[in-house]
Amino acid sequence: MIRKFKTCISLLLAILSILCLFAGCGGSDGAPEGTEVETKRKPLSSIHINLGTEPQSGETDAPEPDEGGARLPLSYDMGSEYIEKFVFICDFQIYGLKSNAMLPSGRETNDVLTGRGGSFSVMSENPTLYSAEYGGELSVADFVSRRKPEYLLLSVGAGDAAAEDSNAFGNFREKYIALISSIKDASPDTVIICMSLLPGSSSSGFSIYDAARYNDMILIAAEETGTYFLDVSSAFAASDGYLRPDCDGGSSRLSTTGLKKLLELIRTHNAEKVEPAPAPETSEK
User: Fold this and answer.
1) What's 80-267's CATH class?
2) Do 65 and 220 touch, CB atoms closer than 8 A?
3) What is the DSSP letter of 107?
């Protein structure tokens, strides 16, 4: 009886050993001779653990900006001749280009425009510019259709962001896109560059962190309309997130130092299409 019991135990152990070999329980030592076993462990840093804190699809109000080719990269300096091709539609932040005579035509320039009283609102029902050249107030589209600028830089939205109400942000991208579209319809050949908002003076309470979500919307608007985005925000921010003291002209306006830096950034992030140099000719031997 004992002998039969031992025989049964031996048979069971043999069967278990065979099953383990087929199931891979023996690891690489149990693989057939001459074959390699591929380990499929992932490093810990690549393992994603969902803790239930990430927003589900459709839960965020604003889309995440992506790299759609709108950002202007750093390039070589195009020089003052490049700046002379520009018209600037702006609000108070960079209007000093005119009032501080930063362009070749000085304070008499017709290339820097804003609304009456020095303000321009993207959120306005009918945004208008004041142009002495064309006799007073006119729509953006009317001005652009008359002037047909080669390059147009939009530096607008700071006033809207600083005076934000509960509904303003939700409509900002839509209004910004409508503004770009009106310019493109009026002058299809004009190259449009959408500039990021700058942080404000420390007294304004409007820092680079407050500007960030508006700049995301400006970037997305540029991507959706096939225009360019010039990100200069971080270049003007101090460690506390507000305008650098040397660039702060008061009331969230750029100083002459800041305006010089802005022109340098425009020149070195150019949107001009430059034809590649032809390949050198090689003499056949």
Assistant:
1) alpha beta
2) yes
3) G
Give mean pLDDT in consecutive 10-residue pieces for the chain, a chain of 285 residues.
48 52 42 37 27 29 55 96 97 96 95 93 93 96 98 95 69 95 98 97 93 95 97 97 97 97 97 64 57
Tokens of 253: 């306006």
Cα distance between residue 129 and residue 120, in whole Å: 8
Q: Are 244 and 279 in contact (CB under 8 A)?
A: no
The two structure tokens encoding residue 168: 């303003």
pLDDT at 285: 45
**Strands, DSSP E only, in the chain?**
86-90, 112-113, 128-131, 136-139, 151-155, 191-195, 228-230
| Beta pairing partners, 71 | 229
Q: From CA 266, how far away is CA 47, in angstroms rounded?
A: 42
Tokens of 271: 């949107």
Measured CA to CA, the distance from residue 80 to residue 103 in angstroms comes to: 9
CB 216 within 8 A of CB 65: yes
Predicted local distance difference test score (pLDDT) of residue 162: 82
Decide if 190 contacts 148 (C-beta within 8 A): yes
Q: Tell the burial category of 161 from Cβ atoms under 10 Å away from its Cβ (0-12, 13-18, 19+).
A: buried
The amino acid sitting at 157 is: G
pLDDT at 167: 58
142, 187 Cβ separation under 8 angstroms: no
Query: What local confidence, expressed as pLDDT, does residue 34 receive?
Result: 41
Q: What is the SS3 assignment for 250?
A: coil
Pairwise CA distance, residues 154 & 218, whole Å:
10
pTM of the model: 0.73
Sign of CA dihedral 236, 241, 242, 244: negative
Closest CA to 196 of 167, 165, 237, 239: 237
Domain ranges of the chain: 80-267
